[in-house]
Structure formats: C-alpha cells, structure tokens
From TrEMBL:
Position of the signal peptide: none
Keyword presence, Transferase: yes
Keywords from the named record: Transferase
InterPro entries found in the cross-reference section: Glyco_trans_4-like_N, Glycosyltransferase_grp1
Name this protein carries in UniProt: Glycosyltransferase involved in cell wall bisynthesis
Source organism (scientific name): Bradyrhizobium shewense
Amino acid sequence: MTQSHVSGGRAARRIAFATIGDAREVRFWSGTPFHMSESLSSEGHEVLHIGPLNAPSLPLYKAYSRFCRTFLRQGVSPFHAGRVVAQYAADSERKIRAASPDVVFAPAGSSFAWGVPKGVPLVYASDATFRLVDNYHPNYRNLSRAARDMAERLERNTIARADLILYPSEWAAESAIRDYGADRARVHVIPWGANLKEAPERGSVLGCRKPGPCRLLFIGANWEEKGADIAVGTLAELKDRGVEAELVICGCTPPKPVTHDGLTIIPYLDKNDRDQRNRLDQLYRDADFFLLPTRADCYGIVFCEAAAHGVPSIAPATGGVSCAIRNGETGILLPPNATKADYATIILEIFANADRLARLRRSSRDAFEARLNWQTWGRRVSDLIQTL
C-alpha cells in the first residue's frame, strides 16, 4: 500500500477502529470512542469503523443476566459469555480481514481483540484492567465465578496479543504490568480528553468571577455511586458554617425526594442537543468548584471537562481519579473515606482565598490545554503508531 504523509513527517495509516458498539455514535460509551476516532482522523489517518460488532446470542444472555441479578442476586455478565465472546471475535476477524488495515485500534475491546488476525499490529486502549474493576466498579460487582474467569482470561490474552497498550492513568498501567505481565515497553500512559465538540474560549471561562454565593456543580449518572448524598451533605455543612452556598446536581435523581435550601436537581441534560448543551456550559461557567465524591471511578472524563471550563475539581483519590486530577493543579484530592465535613473544610478554605481560587482556575485550564484534550492524545498516539 502506498502511504501518504501527514504533518511532522509521520506516515498516515489505515486504521481499523474496532468497537463492540458504533463509535460513530457520540452516545456510545459517553462519546469516548467517538472522540478517539475523530482525533486519529484529524492526524491524517484513514479510520475505518469496524463496528458495531454482531453477536446474535447476546439478547438471550442479556435476558438471562437480568434474571440472575433479579432472582439470584448474582451477576452473569452477558458480554463474558463464551458463545457471545466467540461471536464477537469471529465477526471482528471477518471485518478486519475485509478492511485490510495497517493497524487495529480496539478501545475497551478485550472481549474480541485477543482474536485480531496475526500479522496486524494491535493497539489496545482501556481505562482499567479487569483485576482493578472486579468488585470495585458497580458493573463488575458480585460476578459469577464463570464470568470472572472469562473476563480474566480475555484481559490476559488481549494484553499479551497487543503491540501497544494505552491507558489514561498510571493506576491502570501498573496493573497491566503487575497483574498481567505486560511488557513495560509496550504500555503507555496518555491522559484522555474532555468529550466536548468545541472547547470554550479561555477568556470566556477565566473572566471575572460572577459575584454571589459559593457555587458547587455535581454531574453524574448514578446518585449513590457518584456520591451525591455526600455532595448534599457538604452543602448543608457549608450552610451550617455560615457560608452562602448553592449546589446543582445534574444527571441523576435521588432514590427518595431530597430538598434543601440552595439545592437544584436537574435529572438529565443531553449534550447533543444545542440548547441543553448551552445550559450545561452555563452551569460550568457559573460554578466555583466541580464536586464529585465518587465511590469508584476508573478515570473521569468529566474532570477534564471541568478543567476545560476553568473549574477546579474536588474529589477522592480513588481508582484513576488521581490521574485526571492533579492535586493542587486541577483541583484537590481527598482520601476515599472523606466526609462531608472534610469536603466543606477544603472548599471553605479555598473559597475564602480569592487569589488561590483564581490560581486554581487558571492552572485547571492550563492542564486542559496542555494534556487533558483529545488533540494532544491523538498526536501522542499517532507518534506511537509510527513505531509499529
């Protein structure tokens, strides 16, 4: 194949971008594969979408999984059923062979990437290893022994097959090396970016702070897992200490009705709808702090989005969060067992120091521009792909 050249002297590659879902659809996996593929395209590569993949038996196993969770209180992951895995692998192999690519790029593709045809370089990207999420992340709690064994085997085989292994955090990268024997030379940590169609202008988010109370913003899809109860408790704690404060919770609703002075709950905003996207942008612009007391997170794209808007994040140092947030630069990290009083104390301490808050806002935006964006990710990944 004759390869054209892109900027920086790099050769353009024909990349088979392989995903279980449709990476052209921005709603798939919160838009992360969409932005990855767009970033690689912007680097001059020819990106061929190998997905969505087909597993005809998946609906049957999904129904069985729902039955087991409801009546047996045990997780049977439909994506780790042997028949489903075999069908995904066969479909991906057929489509990859038909595409005749230079490279296969498989984000979160451990269920099929182990079977990528030999002789084609494989780039595997994920935000965690199975060993890390097993009984940590809510999607991987209380799995059956068969599902755990299959997930472990797929992870190990995919890591062994991959020529490049990319993670957004040292937390995940070290697990691949420690728990799965990955060759350190093949493992690279490249932060993921903010899933924004267009980043806000620097000047528009770092202007003079809007006067008024201390404004907290929480964005998460699961009330309990993302720690919305702690966020509400933090609001109450601040008010008890005499601080005028407001909290906007966006993306979820409480299991029982919750009301509090200064609390606003927005169940859902669609980032792909212009009006709702504008409303979400305004929430970021108005916020002094992005507060997410999450109980389990592999990275946190939302922290990158907060940084893009110059909003420092306050969150616990759990999972891969400490790589999306650098303590004292893009926000403040607290211990995983931090209480509402701990959150209120650090927020009050920073809010009372206007210069410190302004510095945090600037350094958050600086971090977004330097590394927490998909353009930077794409350039670094492109350079690595050349080595294949």
